[in-house]
Fold this protein.
Amino acid sequence: MSVLIPCQCCGHMLPKDWNWYVCNQCGLRVCPHCQCKHAGPYSTGGFKCSRCPNGYLEMKRQ
């Protein structure tokens, strides 16, 4: 059985080995559904991380 972890945008619990978008700088983890709608001080959706100034979201599968 896979370990469930929450999306840091919507909070839905999904398997750790899901296709997550993870920031290459701060580790922000969002599900594919939230990739276009996450928001924060540095960005609103897309591949630019919304939580840190220099990070970008990359598709990761653990």
Remarks:
- The chain has a mean pLDDT of 93.
